[in-house]
Amino acid sequence: MKIRLEHQNIGAAVMQIAEHPNFTAINSLKVEGSPINNGFLINGDIAVLCKYASEPNGLGEYTFSFKDDHIDDIAKVQKGKHSLFFALVCVEDGEICCLTEKEFDTLIENRKQSAAVDEDQYQILVTAKKGASLRAYVNAAGRKGKTAGKMLTIPRNSFPDSLFG
Question: 127-161 in b/e burial notation, b at 16+ Cβ within 10 A?
């Protein structure tokens, strides 16, 4: 199998997980018997969904898109007995923004309230300004330059420790 760019970038997160002292096992994350792309089950009870963005846009934002089918898979994972995390790899800055299930849900709900309708896709934005914590947020619907809800502050060093509590 050829190594794809996706393997290299997601591999950065997987390697950090595997090097953690509390790590014991990794398997593909499955929903209804089918594996989820870039989803991993760690130690049998920690679900991690990984995404990457190669470089920030002109505003310094890394964009992570979650389409309808991915949101549906996430909802199915949430019904399971796993704790759920999102490892958002910001490639150019060499950072991983780790969101908890609650933080992810808050961001998506902020966007839904702003748009007043369910959308086909949601975008979580992450900034990695030098000397500052990571920031995760969603844009307000139809309002250029405005965020929906509060920006979340994510410590740069939270990954992978936050997975293991």
Answer: bbeeeebbbbbbbbeeeeeebbeeebebeeebbbe
Closest by CA position to 53, among listed 6, 20, 109, 14: 6
Q: For 27-71, what is each residue's pLDDT tens digit?
A: 999 988 999 999 999 999 999 999 999 999 999 999 999 999 999
Q: What is the pLDDT of residue 3?
A: 79
Measured in Å, how far apart are the chain's first and last C-alpha atoms? 35
Q: Looking only at Cα atoms, what is the longest distance across the chain?
A: 46
pLDDT in tens, 9-25: 999 999 999 999 999 99
In terms of C-beta density within 10 A (0-12 exposed, 13-18 middle, 19 or more buried), how is residue 90 classed?
Answer: buried
Q: How far apart are CA 139 and CA 52, in angstroms?
A: 19
